[in-house]
Design brief:
- The chain has one helix at about 70-75, and strands at about 5-15, 15-20, 25-30, 35-40, 45-50, 55-60, 65-70, 85, 90-100, 100-105.
- With about 110 residues, it is mainly beta.
Length: about 110
């Protein structure tokens, strides 16, 4: 997981990903348990099923850009490290990133 691009599609269950100098594309169809994405010096494009409930926690360095179309996150007070219950909450999704960009969409 060092360099290049990695793609994970149609994920059902949970994930635990550590990536260094890698660009990630992750499509979560059904999040069933606690999940973690950790990325250093790369970009992560994470797509979650539209009605999926989950609890988001992020830890993003000042050198990481974050973008999302999730309406409750657009209203978040902490724009640098957004967190909260999405669609009523559910399994925890932790995203930790340093030096890159994270895009979360549903």
């Amino acid at each position: 997981d060092r360099g290049g691009d990695s793609s994970f599609r149609n994920i059902r269950g949970s994930i635990n990903i550590d990536a260094d100098r890698t660009n990630l594309r992750i499509d979560l169809l059904s999040l069933k348990g606690p999940s973690r994405i950790e990325i250093d010096r790369g970009d992560a494009d994470v797509s979650v099923a539209r009605n999926q409930g989950f609890d988001l926690a992020t830890s993003l360095s000042r050198r990481t850009d974050f973008d999302s179309n999730v309406s409750s996150l657009l209203r978040s007070r902490d724009r640098k490290n957004p967190s909260g219950s999405i669609n009523g909450g559910g399994p925890r999704l932790s995203i930790n990133a340093d030096r890159g960009s994270v895009r979360l969409r549903s």
